[in-house]
Model the fold of this input.
Amino acid sequence: MNNDPMNRIAAALERMSPPPLKAPDFDAAAAFVWQTGPDHLVPVDKVSRVDLDLLIGVDRSRDTLLANTTQFAAGLPANNALLWGARGMGKSSLVKAVHAHVHNTHGSLRIVELQREDLPSVGRLLGLLRGASQRFILFCDDLSFGHDDAHYKSLKAVLDGGIEGRPDNVVLYATSNRRHLMPRDMIENERGSAINPAEAVEEKVSLSDRFGLWLGFHACDQQQYLAMIRGYCDAHGVEIDDDTLRAEAIEWQATRGSRSGRVAWQYFVDLAGRRGVTVS
Done:
């Protein structure tokens, strides 16, 4: 038995360290979810999404993101994108719909969902994706940072890439309700209490500046809201006359106190259930 303390320590550390990750089978699916503990990519056979044509009222953002994604899938330069704005207006739905649309013509395009709480592991994830023949949209949904939250520093590994640089085959698409990824009151509080107010928040606020594309989403009007529902009905074969749809949809919206794509979908799901139509 080797009693050398240094050898015993080295052996213990070797037992504690996880084995190197094996390269995943990126041909197993078009979409993956990144999970930690242990690190691995989970293939997703069926992504929860709607067709690109059913996203109403986001034409400009749709066209911009579609063009950026098509460039990226073709191996051309493309920007990281931040989709920000009103809740329930289709930010995450647009990312998934654009991926599906572009994947139909560029089969090597993959999407990998990364949870905000797993941002510290993003360096290990990029190590797996770097050098693969496929191209990857790294998707982080509902991204925001609060007080004493240092996760934003890990995000810079994707946006700036450090010494190695961001892999050429990876682009980041993130959604957030906040344009600067942090609450306004937090910005004001730090500015008011800091010795140098500008430097106090510059690091966090400038994080959003590192996204090449800013796509804003705003609350829909009643015409767009009704058009969303009509589109869902036509796509899924739910028959309802315009007057009934209008009366029910407006009442549904009033009970929720807001109008959005999410509210439109929730009404449609209720309607489809009452009409005995299965929504896949």
Summary: The two ends are 63 Å apart (CA to CA). The first strand starts at residue 31 and ends at 35. The CA atoms of residues 36 and 121 lie 8 Å apart. The chain has a mean pLDDT of 85.
